[in-house]
Amino acid sequence: MALLALFIVLLPSLIFAQDLGVPLTWRDFNNSRLLAERISIAEDTINTILPQLDASDASFNGIGYWQAGNVFSAMANFDHLAGTTEYEDVVIDGLTTAFSLFTDFDQFGFNDDAMWWATAAYYAFRAYGNEDALSMATATWTHVSEYVVSVADAASGTQPNKDFPIAGTCFGESMAGGVFWQPTADGTAINSITTGLYVTLSAFLAETTGNDTYTNASILSAQWIQNLQINPDGIVLDTVDGEACTRSPSTELFTYNSGKYLEGLAVLADVTGDDSWTTLMTDIAAAAIKSTVWEGSDGIITEGASPTANNDAVGFKRYSSEASTKSPYNDVQYNALLELADNGTSYSSSWEGPPQAFTTWGQLAALDVMVTAINTNSP
Ligand SMILES: *[C@@H]1O[C@H](CO)[C@@H](O)[C@H](O)[C@H]1NC(C)=O
Ligand SMILES: *[C@@H]1O[C@H](CO)[C@@H](O)[C@H](O)[C@H]1NC(C)=O
Ligand SMILES: *[C@@H]1O[C@H](CO)[C@@H](O)[C@H](O)[C@H]1NC(C)=O
Ligand SMILES: *[C@@H]1O[C@H](CO)[C@@H](O)[C@H](O)[C@H]1NC(C)=O
């Protein structure tokens, strides 16, 4: 749920001046906490979830496999932004354990799970310069690449790892660049989260290596989302069936689909120097941070508020990033967590409150906002 709070970090501040004027109805959209305090708040938030870690399989009691990958991402990004190595050992150990237990980070047969973990591995490389982490990210990228619809696949109507005739075009647009959600031969769904994760990791690998195989992969998949998956309001849709071309209901709108794509576009714009990706990012961001689908006029994200049980929506979130800017949107979420949803250093998944006893999923959802806030305010 935190992902929208976070993608704004990616945007240059000039975008706020242009398109993203802060609605005055938003609650508490500034923040005067100094850097040391923001670091300490993020650190306490991480340290409050860490006792749930089972180091034997890199899982966290109370949340699922893909969500656990995002806890490691938050730790690596904390160190990246704070300039520390506090969580290096726990992150590298967790990634190494999961990668050795589950080939290419795929525990349950989902390419998006694998990509969340591969992204965590990339963040670990970024934070610590750890080459093993980069190798895990690259190996997983190579594996998931087997489930991308290539230009040739779209032309032939076949995909080497699928046992059904694939749709080469849907809604008049090429399906090239779409990434199948599941590796299984009969899995037909192609979704925005798997594809958005692929856009993003490809762009990061391009940035790191300068190898245009990654750049081209990122562009093709970014085009798939651009051409097929953006609704008239500018919000990213969920799934297209890669055989029948049917689409998920238009009401299935989740912050992470827009948020992960925005992160990918930010990196892709950087790698390619192509301003059209920045424009697209700006348009989607402007729509997403004001969407009434997941927030009221106070701006506080309500998606995935779930006091009594974990669910996927609680984990629909994304990360902090390398770019630094003021972020009124993150501050709305930050102040809500600290003022409405807090119980000591634990946070409810209902960011409008009330506070409650610790839950692993509530703490997970808070992590990205807290880590991002390190970077989104000055000094
Ligand atoms: C927002 O800015 C005002 C004016 O500078 C300040 O008094 C207030 O404490 C700030 N809010 C937060 C949550 O930091
Ligand atoms: C670029 O990356 C691709 C995909 O990982 C790899 O197959 C290729 O060998 C790389 N090229 C170079 C020059 O390293
Ligand atoms: C990437 O795309 C560019 C532009 O279309 C092309 O010139 C280049 O050969 C491609 N690189 C790879 C590795 O496919
Ligand atoms: C805060 O957390 C403690 C310990 O988990 C719990 O006993 C208490 O009920 C919580 N407070 C609220 C207001 O829910």
Automatic annotation (TrEMBL):
Coiled coil: none annotated. SUPFAM superfamilies: Six-hairpin glycosidases. Pfam families: Glyco_hydro_76. Gene3D superfamilies: 1.50.10.20. InterPro entries: 6-hairpin_glycosidase_sf, Glyco_hydro_76, MUG_Protein. Residues 1-17 form the signal peptide. It comes from the Eukaryota. GO terms for biological process: carbohydrate metabolic process. The keyword Signal applies. Keywords: Signal. The keyword Signal applies. PANTHER family: MEIOTICALLY UP-REGULATED GENE 191 PROTEIN. This is Endo-1,6-alpha-mannosidase.
